[in-house]
Amino acid sequence: MDGSQDDWDDESISQYLGEYLMIKKGPLKYQYYGPDMPPVLFDLDKNPSETINYIHAPEYQEVIRAFKQRSAELGFGAVTSGPVCP
Length: 86
Hints:
Helices cover 15% and strands 24% of the residues. The chain contains one helix and four strands; from the N terminus they run ββββα. The chain has one helix at 61-73; strands at 11-16, 20-25, 28-32, 40-43. It has a four-stranded antiparallel sheet with strand order 1-2-3-4, with helices on one face. Mean pLDDT is 86; it is low at 81-86.
């Protein structure tokens, strides 16, 4: 380690009861509440109080795909083809 943060992975993961998952990467925070509830996405730079869910915002669809893929890798949810969120 040379003190540089250029190659630092700032991903944080938290799970509860093996059913609920939170992944935070940079200012984005993705939360998965199981198959019966829709996931949520917060942008903490734009809305630090987490009152706006960006899960349907077109500009976030690529990053949501990445969060869903990461969730599946961790055993939460499944990656599907088609639109990220109907």
